[in-house]
């Protein structure tokens, strides 16, 4: 997929393939995708399969080969045919003479098979790029979750110390200290879970290029930057040229090539050979020739043509069904993307700032003895939950943008 897309710019900051430096530097999205495209076994398999298809196309496009036949008759019999004195030996050279343009039809089929495999390789590259981007985003989100979890632990420990002081001064009941300790324990559990999730996400991302142990510690991504998406009409206009539609086009071309071979098979081929026969008895030699023609070629070809026509009809029906389904998916993802942006703007513009103000106000009141520990704990919980919800909205927006790019990707959008 073209890495100059807006979501890549937002997450990574620049276009182009940048080689991976070393583990002490944060991993960037371009580097992750470049590594995946350079080392993922799926792409190696597609490349090897393309080589195999090309070799098969070259072989099938060759002209029929010559063949040599040797015959020995009237040897080792009885009476006058005993021994080799009456033997007849024949040496023939022959070849199948193709009629009806069969070789050209095979060559066209080979070219169609190569195009089909090349399109399959492009589709794999686009899918791999999207999957790598989605996994990269998940790592970035889990990093932010861990940051929040660490902050929550710090806040809980700070509050526990404050409550312990107030309990010692007999201003707060002992139950507040126990409640504060429970909050600390829960925050530490949440942090442990966040560490586990981040470790899993990093391992999953590294697996994209075949590493079992990540050689990076962090990723560099700005989740807060929400790039604008193209208008819905522009995205829908790309659907007839998407990689999936190109797959159907290549399948149709393949079926048409097979139909052309079937049509060429209506005209039977000639099996012609010529040779020399030697008669040992009179020690004479003579030329021999033969021609053979198969019968029933038109009937057999008719069935093959009918099969190809049915395959073409099936491919066209599946292509239309896929286009309708893709139209609905793009519309659905576009609407979800708009909702995610609205949620982000509302949370970071109004809701989270108000929660921060409420926490600051509650803390001042708690320190002054006007608010209880429960009020402070609820204000802290509310703020952290809203921050986590904001991160989830960021992640949803970027993930949906990647998905929209994948759904509307064309063969021109493959990674350079």
Automatic annotation (TrEMBL):
Segments forming a coiled coil: 139-204
Q: Which Pfam families match?
A: OEP
Instruction: Quote the InterPro entries the UniProt record gives.
Output: MdtP/NodT-like (IPR010131), OMP_efflux (IPR003423)
- Tell me the Gene3D superfamilies matching this sequence: Outer membrane efflux proteins (OEP) (1.20.1600.10)
Signal peptide positions (record): 1-23
Q: Which UniProt keywords apply?
A: Coiled coil, Signal
Q: Which family does it belong to?
A: Belongs to the outer membrane factor (OMF) (TC 1.B.17) family.
Name of the molecule in the record: TolC family protein
What species is given as this protein's source? Pseudoxanthomonas mexicana
């Amino acid at each position: 997929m073209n890495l100059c897309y807006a979501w890549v710019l937002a997450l990574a900051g620049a276009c182009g393939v940048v080689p991976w430096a070393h583990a002490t530097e944060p991993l960037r999205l371009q580097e992750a995708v470049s590594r995946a495209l350079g080392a993922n076994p799926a792409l190696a398999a597609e490349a090897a399969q393309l080589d195999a298809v090309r070799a098969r196309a070259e072989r099938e496009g060759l002209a029929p080969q010559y063949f040599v036949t040797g015959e020995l008759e009237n040897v080792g019999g009885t009476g006058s045919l005993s021994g080799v004195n009456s033997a007849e030996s024949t040496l023939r050279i022959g070849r199948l003479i193709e009629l009806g343009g069969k070789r050209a039809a095979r060559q066209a089929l080979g070219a169609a098979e190569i195009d089909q495999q090349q399109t399959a390789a492009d589709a794999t590259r686009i899918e791999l790029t999207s999957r790598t981007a989605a996994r990269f985003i998940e790592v970035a989100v889990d990093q932010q979750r861990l940051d929040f979890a660490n902050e929550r632990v710090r806040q809980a420990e700070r509050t526990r110390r404050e409550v312990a002081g107030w309990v010692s001064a007999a201003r707060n009941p002992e139950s507040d200290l126990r409640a504060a300790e429970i909050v600390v324990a829960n925050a530490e559990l949440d942090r442990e879970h966040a560490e586990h999730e981040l470790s899993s996400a990093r391992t999953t991302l590294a697996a994209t290029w075949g590493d079992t142990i990540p050689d990076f510690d962090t990723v560099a991504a700005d989740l807060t930057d929400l790039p604008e998406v193209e208008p819905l009409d522009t995205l829908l206009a790309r659907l007839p040229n998407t990689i999936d539609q190109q797959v159907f086009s290549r399948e149709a071309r393949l079926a048409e090539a097979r139909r052309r071979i079937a049509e060429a098979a209506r005209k039977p081929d000639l099996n012609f050979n010529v040779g020399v026969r030697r008669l040992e008895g009179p020690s004479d030699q003579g030329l021999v020739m033969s021609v053979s023609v198969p019968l029933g070629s038109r009937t057999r070809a008719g069935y093959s043509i009918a099969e190809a026509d049915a395959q073409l009809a099936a491919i066209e029906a599946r292509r239309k069904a896929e286009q309708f389904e893709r139209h609905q998916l793009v519309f659905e993802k576009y609407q979800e993307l708009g909702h995610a942006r609205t949620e982000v703007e509302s949370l970071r513009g109004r809701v989270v700032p108000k929660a921060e103000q409420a926490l600051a106000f509650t803390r001042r009141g708690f320190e002054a003895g006007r608010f209880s520990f429960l009020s402070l704990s609820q204000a802290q919980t509310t703020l952290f939950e809203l921050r986590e919800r904001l991160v989830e909205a960021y992640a949803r927006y970027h993930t949906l943008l990647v998905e929209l790019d994948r759904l509307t990707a064309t063969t021109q959008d493959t990674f350079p």
